[in-house]
Amino acid sequence: MSNRRKFLRSSFLSSFGLLLGRKLHAGGPYPRLAGNPVVISTWDTGLAANAGAWKILGSNGRALDAVETGVRVTEDEINCCVGLGANPDRDGFVTLDACIMDEKGNCGSVGFLERIKHPISVARRVMEKTPHVMLVGSGAQQFAVAEGFHLEEQKLSDDAKKAYEQWLKKSEYKPVINIENTRSGGAGHGPSAPTRLSNGDWNHDTIGMVAMDAAGDLSGSCTTSGMGFKMRGRLGDSPIIGAGLFVDNEVGACTATGQGEDVIRMCGSHTVVELMRQGMSPEQACKAAVERIIRIKGEKAKEIQVAFLALNKKGETGAFAIQKGFSYALKNNKEERMYTAKSWY
Ligand code: SD4
Q: What is the pTM of this model?
């Protein structure tokens, strides 16, 4: 055989081998961990949300169904930062953002959605029933209604009304706040969801959830009303795939909470997943992402809260935040509890 033919033959075989190798490794760098479902979600409201998700995960259901069902629990609660009971924008309207992503890289999202109780389920319909990833505003609402979602009355919850009336006294628009407040979500002082509590801790309530099911597949969800008293039309990181949420079934999944603008700037959740792909543990990856925000923001990082929460394909979990006070809920076959994340400050 001539040298040229030998070369062609061997390069064909090695490309074929590579292709085959790829296929063999389609499960990713980690072996599939079956039979150990786990769910983690942000903040204290995560406990009840995890319990909702566990109804599915604990009976061998799919992670995608679990993360939708789980965060619907929070969307049903009266909460500063999730669902229709949440704080409004500065014009007095509650506008909701949500996204969802499954183990196959399918994803769906809604932003600036009004008068619909379960934006996470609309996001799932966008994923499953449209050729698109994202629908926003009146288009998203129109789609939701066409899909049978009920158009709720435009009315603030009692808590939100009180918080908004308080805010209106000054109508002070500050994209960042770092002061104590009466209602988690920035009542009285500006459009930011982060609030500093009297003990110095920071509070938010957006719910981000990532889970692995008994088959070893990953999914995630994220839903929020965003910053209280934000500008009308503002979108945060929570409906943006790669920012507020990212899932890669070969590696892991991550969700973010906190000041969305700063998460969007560095594609937060995607960054964390890519760092895990390079071999970092979930906590190391979340910390490295926080450090990147701190490098970008310098001293201004002192005034904001951002936290990342991640899960890898081995079922390991971890988190890291800029400020202290970020808590997350974990549920697996052995435990159901809150953890407090380490933080930069
Ligand atoms: C946003 N990331 O809209 C959300 C807010 C948040 O807990 O996480 N609040 O920027």
A: 0.87
